[in-house]
Amino acid sequence: MQGTARNKSLSVLLALLGVVVVFALIIMIGGALNESLQLDETAVLRFVFVGIGLLAVYAVYWITRENRVWEVGTREVVYMSIGAALFALLSWLFNGTVFVVPSVSQVALRPAIAIPMFFGYAFGPVVGFFTGAVGNMFGDALTGFGLSPQWSVGNGLIGMIAGMVWLFDDKRRSINTVLIITAVLAALATLIYVFNPTIPNMLFFEPENNIFGDQQITLFAAISLIIGFLLVLLIRFGFGKDIDVAAAVTWSALGNIIGIGFAAISDIWINGFSPAVAIVGEFLPAAGPNLIFAAILVPILVVAYEAVRRQSGR
Question: Based on the structure, what is the number of domains in the chain?
Answer without folding.
Answer: 2
